Amino acid sequence: MNEDTFQRFSAADLRTFIDNTFKAFEVPQADAAQAADVLVTSDLRGIDSHGVARLRKYVELMSEGLINPRPNVRILRERMSTATVDGDNGLGLVVGPKANQIAIEKAEKVGSGWVSVCNTNHFGIAGYYPLQALQKDIIGWAMTNTGKWMAPIFGAERMLGTNPIAIAFPGLKEPPVVIDFATSAVSFGKVQIKRREGKDLPDNWILDPDGNPSNKVDDLLTGGTLLPLGSTRETGGHKGYCMAAMVDILTAVLSGANWGPFAPPFASRVFIPEKSVGKGIGHFFGAMSIDGFMDVDEFKTRIDEWVQRFRETKAAPDTQGVLIPGDPERFAEAERKESGIPIIRPVIEDLKWVAEKAKIDWIQ
Amino acid sequence: MNEDTFQRFSAADLRTFIDNTFKAFEVPQADAAQAADVLVTSDLRGIDSHGVARLRKYVELMSEGLINPRPNVRILRERMSTATVDGDNGLGLVVGPKANQIAIEKAEKVGSGWVSVCNTNHFGIAGYYPLQALQKDIIGWAMTNTGKWMAPIFGAERMLGTNPIAIAFPGLKEPPVVIDFATSAVSFGKVQIKRREGKDLPDNWILDPDGNPSNKVDDLLTGGTLLPLGSTRETGGHKGYCMAAMVDILTAVLSGANWGPFAPPFASRVFIPEKSVGKGIGHFFGAMSIDGFMDVDEFKTRIDEWVQRFRETKAAPDTQGVLIPGDPERFAEAERKESGIPIIRPVIEDLKWVAEKAKIDWIQ
Fold first, then answer.
1. Contact in structure between B104 and B117 (CB atoms under 8 Å)
2. How many domains does one find in chain B?
3. Residue of chain A whose Cα is closest to the Cα of B209
4. Which of A116, A336, B93, B309 fits a disulfide with B35 by CB distance 3.0 to 4.6 angstroms?
5. ipTM score of complex
6. Domain range for A289
7. How far is CA A257 from CA A264, A310, B173, in A?
8. Among partner residues B83, B259, B315, which is closest to A154 by beta-carbon distance?
9. Contacts of B289 in chain A (CB under 8 A)
10. pLDDT by residue (tens digit) across A304-325?
11. What is the CA radius of gyration of chain B?
């Protein structure tokens, strides 16, 4: 990015702006602050596609009455270490943290907590949730299903979302190991970047609408599909399909949400699913108290040793060597806390549109 | 395979042979039967690399006193829904089922159970364990770390095993969805098949000892590495690395076992790890009672609908269309229960060696 194409904003300014936006749409104060925290954390960690860049879409959905600003998030069914939660069609940015909190509380009581959530909406970055759990020495998991983009291996039809998985482990002196990835070979965001640059796509990212390999962004946009992680049968694409299926079942089949091709899209006008098989999309949260397995400091010390040994891995040619999961996001966060968060012009235009729509001040 | 290269055996005959073998090495009767069940299930399900073909290696390890035939499998630490188990250096085929049973019992009591296991050995196919949980309407998970073969992305050194993950979900009228895969792009078994056929390897399977892409089996055997699922940075290889790391941490760091490059190899003479950072290898089992989330029959009916819709996916050209996870193994099992299990000549020779070593009869 060169300086002409973006402008930097402080996390504090963005947080206030997002907070005010949600409050303008009748989201209660605490929930608005929570939602702002999820989005700003994404921007700080360098995951630009899931942060403030999405605020306009949330606002569109709220303006159209498609999201409930004041949900009654409630437990439908539970046992000591499990629960199913109905998000009452609230913002995923609000429902997600509440359901995650239920998992954490169960972990504190009985060692672990597992919560499947229906009737919810997109919850931001999956990595946000295990980061919350880390603060209590809990290993946190998060998954969500999303609107369809991916074909199962041997398929030529959008059947699954990019269904991410996140999990994190705390170190003692070393930073935590934070894993957060989509189960497709690449996210839609990466395709958008190539499109903006006017470039063809690398091999093994997408299929055209007939199910043939393609390098053309247009083939994806006119009905093609993202490939699962592993891409082809020969290089393990069936494994990425299995993982996306696992996430779909734990988040949506198990909770009573819409699964697979019936998951509603993030932007309401992309497509309308052919039918409904449940309520909203689904999330799944897990929380495991470390002290249910091992002395907490002993575990953290072992993670430190793991991190140190992996950093010492012999590097492949023409690379900077092995990273620890979570390193790229941590580096981004350090830099952005210092220098501000770069926002590209089209997103700034979207945010000014939001300010007008919400009748709030734009950042001075 | 043509008829000259293999011979078929009934599951019952193989089971008796394996059972007698383990008993000859002082494994108690119930444990020997359990171990035989894990191996025969693998062969029945078509996963030839993990079944009776491994019996010779188990026998070698037992002959050398490297595995304890009569382990005292015990809980080191627990909370209501979690535990850490010490396998007392027993067969993974015995320790695994016992630890899995502890997870299942916790799920019956409080909704879920999560068990991390140290001081154990290779446990057969990961898919065996969730199949046990299914019998009680429990969603089961299993993972294990294994001896090093895989390089992290940007690495040129063996740091992780092929660390598999398995999970299964029951249907009502449809067969269960059974997910079981290694987190490398391909298993070592697939490389061995190409080697036997005298063929080069496809792109994106391995690196040579210097960390360069290679298609030569010899490059793998002389110090090269398997690539993680996703293979390259461009097609998501960092995600396969993250998954293998997750399995390594949950199974080995959390339990007190040897993690990463320190995990002992399956065959004792392949390599000796540079140091020990714990006891044996590690497993991780999870069990979640469906009724902790949803009415059991409602869930199973939803799985049936999921399976039916995914079977109807528009097929990609030159494919037979989309399979449900677990289909290939189920088809193999139906065929092999009927026609017997095909065992290739080199494995038959190994089994005859085992018969002699154990002083038991070979199958008539």
1. no
2. 3
3. A316
4. B93
5. 0.98
6. 71-185+227-311
7. 10, 39, 21
8. B315
9. 79, 82
10. 999 999 999 999 999 999 999 9
11. 20
